[in-house]
Amino acid sequence: MLTTLSILTLLPDQKRWGFAQMGTAQGPLQQVAGLRFQKLLGSGAGGFGALPNLRRYGFMAVWESEAAAARFFAEHPLWQQYQQRTSEIWTAELVPLKSHGLWDGVNPFAYPSEMAEPTGPVAVLTRASIRWQKTPRFWRYVAPTSATVAHAPGVRAAIGLGELPVVRQATFSLWESQQAMQDYAYRSEKHKQVIKLTRQEKWYGEELFARFRVVRTEGTWDGRAL
User: Fold this and answer.
1) Phi then psi dihedrals of residue 104, to 5 deg
2) pLDDT tens-digit readout, 70-125
3) How far apart are CA 41 and CA 61, in angstroms?
4) What is each CA distance from 83 to 25, 98, 217, in whole angstroms?
């Protein structure tokens, strides 16, 4: 099995088309052979804002095999449309190292994989469904803290993603090493405060945390080959 995450940056005149795909792409994606789990995700303005960035989207997928993923990215008509309508696409192939929690009632990354500690880049995904009554507190504390991830030592890139504005949110970050990621997680006072508040105030109806080894990446993100 294989997990992939793609960051897609649409051409300036393709905003309407890209937004429409959040609904219309679900039918074709559900018919893709070998695609076990998928989420087409919007992104936040400025990387982590509550308002959407209508030119940038994420596509997270779990595949039955590397071959199934390769066929989709090489041949599927929907992906060919994205290639024609984007200025750049960045895709990472990921192997789960640690995963706990649920995403729509399942843990899509709980499958057998290489468990050796990575010596190269790692990626982290945090995802949550926020309780409606807790959204003001969430956005007051979590959004500013999440934005600091992008400037932490050892971060190659970071972005806020989501299935629905405000209440179904995720953060993806790419780190130079596992040590750099752990240094931020355990030494950042703002990060530790948010984790404590999350538990005390029960902000989330559902949440998931996953850490991945980065097998390889392809393409560019903001003009960089990460």
Assistant:
1) 55, 40
2) 999 999 999 999 999 999 999 999 999 999 999 989 999 998 877 667 788 999 99
3) 11
4) 14, 31, 16
Residues 175/181, Cβ–Cβ less than 8 Å: yes
* Beta carbons of 46 and 17 less than 8 angstroms apart: no
* pLDDT tens digits, 36-62: 999 999 998 776 666 789 999 999 999
pLDDT of amino acid 134:
58
Q: How far is CA 58 from CA 77, 129, 160, 170, in A?
A: 18, 17, 10, 11
Rg of the chain's alpha carbons, rounded to an integer?
A: 17
Encoding tokens for residue 107?
């843990």
Residue whose C-alpha is closest to residue 213's, from 112, 124, 100: 124
Structure tokens at 200: 């005390």
Q: What share of the chain is helix, strand, coil (3-state, %, to 5)?
A: 35, 40, 25
**Pair type for strands 168-175 and 204-219:** unpaired
Using a 10 angstrom Cβ sphere, with 0-12 exposed, 13-18 middle and 19 or more buried, the burial of residue 74 is exposed
Residue 202 near residue 151, CB atoms below 8 Å: no
Q: Which amino acid is at 207?
A: E
Among residues 85, 103, 95, the alpha carbon closest in space to that of 163 is found at 103
Query: Each residue of 197-216: b (16+ CB within 10 Å) or e?
Result: bbeeeebbeebbebbbbbbe
Q: Strand 204-219 and strand 86-101: pairing?
A: antiparallel
Tokens describing residue 120:
């190269």
Which residue reads 């899509």 in tokens?
108
